[in-house]
């Protein structure tokens, strides 16, 4: 019941934003700013850049809100914009998401986890803050794929589209990044 | 125990969103928001238009910039294309609906279409025929209103039973039989109209003959 009210409220806000109502735009911003800032920050790993990227994303969203037709939730639609904006920022840093089947892109000093041996995670005590720190230590390529898959809930097909890489590359990148993350957590 | 990490993150997802967005970000966003044009407001047809597109379409505009093009440069272009695409889709939908409506009479016979789409086509054809013949009859009996009245009352009886059948349709358990009865009724109406038209034609021919005799 509460969820339904929440959804109705969002739909109502979106409709009012389409009419250009300032108050509704602010309310919608307030509702999503924190979650979206964290999405941006996880991808970019840089506070100032995350802020710029988020500003652009919100502007995109509000200025193109007419093209939102409710096929997904507004949150999912907005997140897509935030993610794409953040990826564009990464691209402007000239990070290449190369095919990792042939080359290795993890210059973070860790061993190469290309082998398919699963990492033994039975002994690891998970902790939110430690995972956050470990994510920040990952190389860019690993961090982005892990962030999109583990935190934003995209599947490998979607990640492939977002990053313009193949689904297999996304999968491989994820497996390696995941192992690296577990290794960092175990240190 | 392979997906410990995934499970932990899923269960603690909200705790990971710990960073607060910078103060004053809204103040930077607000001036950049353009006011929408009044005409592009709540479009009641917007939801129909989308039917012609895949579910990807909505997110598409925001994926384009990934080609490496700066986002701003492509904005204006896709805006125009979007409206063009929407117009085309709307045109197709309207056309498609008109065609289906002409064939099946969705607006004329909503009850029948709902119950039996297979009979709907037949229905519309007969109903149109009845209308056409009725108009013909009316035109031929302009000079003789009394005759038209007599004919019309015969037809009215059939029409009344047709309306009764139609009213029964929604709650009748054996809808197929009822629809068939309705079609039969329309058949009778057409036959009756045909007979009536033949009578009038014969009368006219007789009149002509007598006229010729008088001359």
Overall CATH class of the largest domain in chain A: Mainly Alpha
Task: List the secondary-structure elements of chain B in sequence, H or E.
Answer: HHHHHHHHHH
Number of helices of chain B: 10
CATH superfamily of the largest domain in chain A, called what? Answer: RNA polymerase sigma factor, region 2, helix turn helix motif
What's the short story on this structure?
The complex is a heterodimer of chains A (187) and B (215). Chain A is mainly alpha-helical and 187 residues long. Chain A is built from 8 helices and no strands.
What does this structure look like?
The complex is a heterodimer of chains A (187) and B (215). The longest helix of chain A has 23 residues, at 22-44. Chain A has two domains: 2-92, Rna Polymerase Sigma Factor, Chain: A; 97-187, Arc Repressor Mutant, subunit A (Orthogonal Bundle), CATH 1.10.10. Chain A is built from eight helices and no strands. Residues 99-107 of chain A have low confidence and may be disordered. Chain A is mainly α. Chain B is elongated and about 105 Å long. Chain B has 215 residues and is mainly alpha-helical. Chain B folds into two domains: 44-55 and 69-103, no CATH class; 105-214. In chain B, 71% of the residues lie in helices and 0% in strands. The chains are: A mainly alpha (187), B mainly alpha (215). At the A-B interface, helix 2, helix 3, helix 4, helix 5 and helix 8 of A face helix 1, helix 2, helix 3, helix 5 and helix 6 of B.
List the helices and strands and how they pair.
The complex is a heterodimer of chains A (187) and B (215).
Chain A: H1 2-18, H2 22-44, H3 47-63, H4 74-92, H5 128-137, H6 140-151, H7 156-163, H8 167-186
Helix pairs in contact in A: 1-2, 2-3, 2-4, 2-6, 3-4, 5-8, 6-8, 7-8
Chain B: H1 4-11, H2 13-16, H3 25-29, H4 46-49, H5 60-63, H6 71-104, H7 110-115, H8 117-140, H9 145-168, H10 175-214
């Amino acid at each position: 019941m509460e969820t339904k009210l929440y959804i109705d409220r969002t739909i109502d806000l979106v409709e009012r934003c389409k009419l250009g109502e300032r108050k509704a735009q602010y309310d919608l911003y307030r509702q999503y700013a924190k979650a979206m800032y964290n999405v941006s920050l996880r991808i970019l790993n840089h506070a100032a850049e995350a802020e710029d990227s988020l500003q652009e994303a919100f502007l995109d969203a509000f200025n193109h809100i007419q093209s939102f037709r409710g096929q997904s939730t507004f949150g999912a639609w907005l997140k897509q914009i935030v993610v794409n904006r953040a990826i564009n920022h990464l691209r402007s840093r000239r990070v290449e998401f190369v095919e990792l089947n042939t080359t290795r892109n993890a210059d973070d000093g860790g061993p190469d986890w290309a082998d398919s041996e699963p990492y033994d995670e039975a002994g690891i005590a998970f902790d939110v803050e430690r995972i956050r720190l470990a994510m920040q230590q990952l190389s860019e390529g690993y961090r982005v794929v892990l962030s999109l898959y583990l935190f934003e809930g995209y599947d490998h097909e979607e990640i492939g589209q977002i990053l313009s890489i193949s689904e297999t590359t996304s999968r491989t990148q994820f497996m390696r990044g995941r192992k690296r993350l577990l290794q960092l957590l175990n240190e | 125990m392979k997906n410990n990490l995934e499970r932990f993150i899923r269960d603690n997802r909200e705790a990971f969103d710990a960073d607060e967005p910078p103060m004053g970000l809204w103040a930077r966003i607000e001036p950049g928001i353009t006011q929408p044009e009044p005409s592009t407001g709540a479009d009641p047809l917007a939801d129909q238009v989308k039917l012609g597109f895949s579910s990807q379409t909505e997110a598409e505009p925001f994926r384009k910039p990934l080609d490496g093009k700066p986002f701003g440069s492509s904005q204006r272009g896709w805006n125009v294309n979007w409206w063009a695409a929407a117009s085309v889709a709307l045109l197709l939908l309207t056309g498609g609906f008109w065609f289906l409506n002409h064939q099946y009479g969705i607006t004329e016979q909503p009850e029948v279409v709902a119950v039996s789409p297979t009979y709907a086509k037949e229905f519309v054809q007969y109903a149109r025929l009845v209308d056409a013949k009725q108009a013909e009859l009316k035109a031929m009996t302009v000079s003789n209103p009394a005759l038209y009245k007599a004919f019309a009352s015969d037809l009215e009886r059939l029409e009344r039973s047709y309306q009764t059948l139609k009213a029964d349709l929604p709650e009748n358990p054996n809808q197929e039989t009822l629809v068939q009865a309705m079609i039969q009724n329309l058949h009778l109406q057409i036959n009756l109209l045909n007979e009536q038209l033949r009578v009038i034609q014969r009368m006219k021919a007789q009149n002509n003959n007598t006229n010729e005799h008088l001359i």
